[in-house]
Design a protein that fits this description.
Chain lengths: 250, 347, 286
Amino acid sequence: MLVAAALAALAGCAPVDGGGAGGADSPGRTLTVFAAASLTGTFEELGERFERDHPGTEVEFGFAGSSQLAAQINEGAPADVFASADARTMDSVAEAGNTAGEPVVFVRNTLEIAVPRGNPAGITGLADLADPGVAVALCAEEVPCGAAAAQALDAAGVRVTPVSLEEDVKAALTKVELGEVDAALVYRTDVLAGDAVEGIPFDEAAGAANDYPIAVLAEAPHPGLARDWVDWVCSADAQRVFRDAGFTAR
Amino acid sequence: MSAGLDARLVVDRGEFRLDAALRARPGEVVALLGPNGAGKSTALRALAGLESLTGGHVRLDGRDVTTAPPERRPVGMVFQDYLLFDHLSALDNVAFGPRCAGAGRAEARAAAARLLERVGLAAFARARPRALSGGQAQRVALARALAVRPRLLLLDEPLAALDVHTRAGVRAELRRHLADLDCATVLVTHDPLDAMVLADRITVVEAGRVVQEGAPGDVAQHPRTGYVARLVGLNLYRGTAHGTRVEVAGAGAEVALPEPRAGEVFVAFPPRAVALYRERPDGSPRNLWRLRTEGVERFGDQVRVHLDGPLPLRADITPAALAELRLDTGTPVWAAVKAAEVRCYPA
Amino acid sequence: MTPGSPPAEAAPPEAAGTRRAAALRVRAGRFPWPLVVPALIGLAFLVLPFAGLLVRAPWASLGTRLLLPEVRGALWLSLTTATAATAVSVLLGVPLAWLLARTAFPGRRLVRALVTVPMVIPPVVGGVALLLALGRRGLVGGYLDAWFGVSLPFTPAAVVLAQVFVAMPFLVISVEGALRGADRRYEEAAATLGASRAVVFWRVTLPMVAPGVAAGAVLAWARALGEFGATITFAGNFPGRTQTMPLAVYLAMQESPESAIVLSLVLLAVSLGVLVALRDRWTGAL
């Protein structure tokens, strides 16, 4: 009964918050953006500027692995916008009829070889990763960075036996930072954001880059504001921010 | 080199101090008798090595074991609630000691079986302790303690865990087993009957000190403290004898003796030797005191009357006499004792 | 009386008789609603998510998925590493519990608090901590690598270590509680029978606290079996070598929730089966 009362109270709050949702720019609203964890730094910066340009609006982010976010959205999480780290994950949301309109690719992320500072194993390119004496971490193929890595290695014709298939790119990066592995294939943005790691670009990366799609969600509480956010992310100003963080602009 | 136990046990815990000398010859059973908290159990634990001494010594058959750990002492102990190991059968409980002493499993079990046979429990060898009655458990505990071939056997309140109906039988049985032993035995009890029946000698401990020692009959006849006197059912006073009169210490009363004595003495007489009167009796017996009724309680088929006054005492009278006297708290009475009933012995 | 039952006057004589007898029976106290209601809510809360899994499970493909070599590999790795971790926890945890329960040393309270730390910190942090301690460049791991050429991360041994780290506290706490509850006079009795301290421990103390050890071992095993965060961080994820069931479940989740559900059910079924079987063997021990 206590639980029921608490739920009723929560439910009672909701209309007060979202009451003015009709007008495009009426103040006191919260835009909820679900975004891939690799977008954390850039989206937060863009969010501050968006709030400045839309007085009275607050942007709230849910950062997590793309697949987790997709699962949450498909189970009915009340978000306005979804930005995924790969097309496949976005497709799973679109196919479930949970996007409003076609997703657009707003940025792309290329892979780099991350090595511990000083590059103790002397890695120079993708071919070095095939050396059995080199401990390599890749992302698991189930997650976007793993799929991209597999694609890149295939394209280069390099066969790697990794010591671990990490559950996400941050975990792979951590192994490099701690010196537990000699190299890992991660995104360029992660190399730039990481501590004590160096990035080694490689030619085959271009063919295996990840496109980041973004879409307004079908059940968005604030569809107008959500469209504003998508436009903002695609604008030249925002693209500069992405480039600074290591992304390749559209 | 003396055989048996020779110990002086000093345990100082600040608010409580035990200081007691104990001796027991091989084959002799010594009872440590005393009220709760007197230090009997502490003394027993110190003998077993479960409690460290702050002073004194423990010698067994001439060997000093004062600082030896429990497992290195030739001591067997029967605990108050027996403490049989629940996860082992009766046989394996008894075999535990021999196994610890290095005997093989078969050898230890054979020895254990002989001991169980001796205490009449051969049929219960495979029983779990839980399935045994109190008396059976006690016999298994005794067999277990004897299995280590102790030079000193310790029994802590061996009958306290039993109900009243089985106690007499187990007591007689235990007495028979103890009589067969060739090791020194110390048992602790607060029950004078246990001490009288089981022990060859009684050591009375009060507040950490030995207050009286002697054969059971001697202790029963000549108590030297109020605690012992109450246990054996006597009114006891200490005083100075002048001929046939004893001036009782700390009381404004005198006690008349059948024959003259001199010096510091104890005088004792049983409660049933006291006669009570509402009016001062004729013929004027030599011991007559004016006292006040403090309380009345049932005592067997008699009534025990507690009296206060110059000579506080207990009197046992028949219910009929009580009815006649119409005693109530505060009722004044005359108490008379024939001089011939008064026992007197040096203090 | 149920709403549909006939009125009392119309009842046949024998029924009236039983009713009179019933009236003489001592009435049971009021039904303990204040206990039963929260108990049922609690039970529902624990069982409902499980029911959710069952409802969504793709039953048709269950059998074929079970036969997949990756699934069998992960299941086998999970069962063996969790069992090994439990064994290590018992070997190290029981003496540690004994130390905490039976000895007085300065800082004992602090040590006890330290023992519970792995229960409190997020397992992923525990995994990072293990890397910092036992990794290739770790506090101790650096020497292991330099002197013996031993590198723990990314090996099945690392999986076991990660599980021991999170599971052993459960065993220590359970056994310490049992030791504190045990009657020490039995140990004294054993000493008077000539038992050395080691013999007392093996033949008296341990059998006395056996139920506590068993309960602790089951908790530890269950915790080790479900361990995810510390494992994936310290041991990584490689099928057949370090990919345990929880890791397989997590990664399957990234692609298709259905296969994650199947894997979860497999893990649940096997662990429940093992626990029930053990419980039957140690009836009364838990």
